[in-house]
Amino acid sequence: MYQPETSYEEFLKSEQEKYPELDLKDIEELKERLKANADLPPIRDKLIVMFLHSSYFDVDQAYKTITTHYKYRKELPQVFENYDPSSEEMKQVFDNMSICIVLNPSTGKQERLLYTNFKNTDPDEYDYVRCCRYFFMMLEYLMVTSGTFEGVVLTMNSKGVCWRHITKTPMNTLKKLLGFVQEALPVRLKEVHVLNSGTIISMLINIIRPFMRSNLLNLLKVFPEGSKDIFNHMPIDIMPQEIGGNGKSHYEYCEETYKQMLSARDFFLSLN
């Protein structure tokens, strides 16, 4: 596992040992093309490596993904700016939602497992935009400490969701974030699981389905309330106790993740 201050040279050497396909010529070509684009901000070398990996080492695809990534970031400053895990807004998210890393091996290419769960189901305490900012901060932490890996699997427990949660979700922001997830992530998204789905989740999926491409729909797996079929896809020994797993409580996973993010506060502030 890296530290945020790990040098690019050390990072690149280790990443090429994991993935020999990370060719230095491709990285340099991608850097030059990005520098020539005046519409793009300076981009961290480590992040360029992440994009090349997420694009399966295709320079043209990586360039397209990066330009799209920054287009969405510009359109969604409420999500991608003011990164500070110690802010009152992020503390409020931590108090009311578990947004956490369940599996993050210290080395290797193994998929990373992410999980979300309400701590407090009161819609008055729910803020979709803040939750998204927290989530993407967590993803930044995962990338800067893990480097490249096979992909991310996200499991969302929808138990406790009600219609007021949906009405508090700004649909224009949700639509753009769906585009971001499908077109512009610097990691490979492998699967998305939604647990304890009921009528409200079915209605939400129907609302957003027109904005979901077939590749995302193919990654989406929805499980009805009380189903244990998730363990046909996910390791029962790691998943949270609250859904029938033998791992830690989601409260504990959340606490660990938040402490890790706080320890990297200087890194997050440098992204602003």
Automatic annotation (TrEMBL):
The organism's taxonomic lineage, starting at the top: Eukaryota, Metazoa, Ecdysozoa, Arthropoda, Hexapoda
GO MF annotations in UniProt: phosphatidylinositol bisphosphate binding
Species in which this protein is naturally found: Melanaphis sacchari
Protein name stated in the entry: Alpha-tocopherol transfer protein-like
InterPro entries from the UniProt entry: CRAL-TRIO_dom (IPR001251), CRAL-TRIO_dom_sf (IPR036865), CRAL/TRIO_N_dom_sf (IPR036273)
Domain CRAL-TRIO: 133-251
GO cellular component, as recorded: membrane
